What we know:
The protein has 14 helices and 5 strands. By secondary structure, it is mainly α.
Amino acid sequence: xxxxxxxxxxxxxxxxxxxNSFSDDQKKMIEQTFLLDEIQSTNKTExxxxxxxxxxxxxxxxxxxxxxxxxxxxxxxxxxxxNKYEDFTSLHSIxxxxxxxxxxxxxxxxxxxxxxxxxxxxVHISDGFKSIQDGFYPxxxxxxxxxEYLLFNQKEDIDIYLKLILTHFMIETIHPFYDGNGRFGxxxxxxxxxxxxxxxxxxxxxTSINKxxxxxxxxxxxxxxxxxxxxxxxxxxxxxxxxxxxxxxxxLDLQGKKxxxxxxxxxxxxxSKSELKIYNCIREASILTYFGIxxxxxxxITGVSKRTLMSTxxxxxxxxxxxxxxxxxxxxxxxxxxxxxxxA
Length: 344
């Protein structure tokens, strides 16, 4: 287990070094892509169908989406993106964050917490077929459990990944709310990791878990088995393996993208210096994002005039080098090339 912790910390450090080797504009593109993947993975775990296009539209505020749960999940990651977190020192601060994330996202009135802080009714947690565990009950037991969660979460003499894994188990076992406990628990992990390490991996926790969804649920289920006698070694080991796999995947993905950006473009283009700057900006966005880049973003990054941009875009269209898609009033541009990211 200690070896796994060392490997997770080492590869996360290498990942952040690699991420920081990109320019500020490139980093924003990468964060946008990871954010789309993370929100989509959270949706999948919650059995919500959404394409990256759906999520991208909400992020760009260009359409209204009727699925309140999707909007709630997207808003929660916007909150993470802006680093608007607080230190949780009270039960009410936990409830306030939950209300913020779940605003208007309840499927029925029965899902709204009805206790002093949390729920006052009982809940049964199932694996989709049968009840496998009951959450803490009554509410005074929930509050006692959550107070222990807060105390443990404030410990500074424990590895952050070990703390994330154990506090996540506490949240999922206590099950303080009627609805959204899994989503809320995974989000708390991302929030705490972002606050403690400020690592790009904080955007990728749900994606890593969704990729290993069966392993994740088995880890939780096995840890609750009465024959384990409260021993969490197996659960911790499986969660560390999930994190390690997730970080390694991102590292290799970013490494490949970095290499492609640095490679010379084989196309022989008759472009001026300004036009080439625009072309390379779109090319980088084509490698790093799903939907490319819009006019306003190109202008901000390159500093060219609007006239130069429009004439360059026209030239690229005439040479059949571009793919374009519209979101609201904004047109997004991509250079056609092998190995581009594709929306799904």
